[in-house]
Amino acid sequence: GNSVTQMEGPVTLSEEAFLTINCTYTATGYPSLFWYVQYPGEGLQLLLKATKADDKGSNKGFEATYRKETTSFHLEKGSVQVSDSAVYFCALSEPPQGGSEKLVFGKGMKLTVNP
Amino acid sequence: DTEVTQTPKHLVMGMTNKKSLKCEQHMGHRAMYWYKQKAKKPPELMFVYSYEKLSINESVPSRFSPECPNSSLLNLHLHALQPEDSALYLCASSRGFSGYNEQFFGPGTRLTVL
Fold it and tell me: In this predicted model, what pLDDT tens digit does every residue of B102-114 receive, in sequence order?
């Protein structure tokens, strides 16, 4: 079946450091790929997405590129802030079944950014 | 309105109680989802409703009973739960039309079973 493997951490960085969170996937067909972020005590928020090969998703200074040749969707940010402290989930969307899509999540990575 | 709302925010119940979780969205989405999330784990899918019909049940115990009264509302009825059912319960919705559509999540209900 489809699966997502991502760095698990936890990771602690200083403010303004560069962030990379690796994510690779195994899937049949051509899934959509997502990064979700979960701040403490909250639900998941969509951070960015990409729906086909070579698409780049970006939001709030975060970027990720859908690389079909390496089956990867690594998340990057050039300069992290304290407010980026959260848990980050990489996910893929399996093909729609009857109008809904199943998300397959990675295990999540907790990021702490210190001032 | 681009929100998914969930009530209550917190719920404490005994093993003999009956309670319900409520989820609402007004984005015109036709697919709605229940997830269970344990601490430090990703969400686990429980149920999916598509066009108000149950389309996926991930072998969830019968003490969890979902209901979709209309296209905007999703309930999860709880009865005779076990302490291991304590978790964050997340609701999500997506457009439900063809194509790969992102899911929008609510803030969750933090459930504690005593």
Answer: 899 999 999 999 9
